[in-house]
Specification:
The protein is α+β, with helices and mostly antiparallel strands. The chain is built from three helices and two strands; from the N terminus they run H-H-E-E-H. The chain has two domains: about 70 residues; about 35 residues, no CATH class. Strands 1-2 form a two-stranded antiparallel ribbon. Strand 1 and strand 2 form a beta hairpin. Helix 2 runs antiparallel to helix 3. The radius of gyration is 24 Å and the shape is flat. The two termini are about 35 Å apart.
Length: about 130
Amino acid sequence: MRVLVLLCLVALGACTTPRQACERDALYDLSVIDSLIAESEQTLARGYALRRDPYRRTSLQLCYGSRLGGNDRVGMVLCNRPDVGVRTRPVAVDLKAERAKLAELKAKRAELARIAARRLAECRAISPQG
């Protein structure tokens, strides 16, 4: 099953033109910093941050087949499977430090926007057909 999903992802990736791949790579850092800016703005608006804590849990599922007493059997049995869940908890945050971080992120974004514009122009020059 995993192999099938992987093959589908590879096939979809092959549909990308060289220019689209170049543009995606050129805009990656900018999209990351945009998401960090949005998260910081939301934290300031709320007055607290949200922390995601992973935890282990088990889930009861139907599994195919079982091995009882050395005999292979085909059928369905109940089995426990480990799973990782995520809890979101509010945490206190220093709002003054968060404002300073936001200002630094916005300054960095301006720099990255100039770099991304230059890279996009290079992408268009290398592959003008899009």
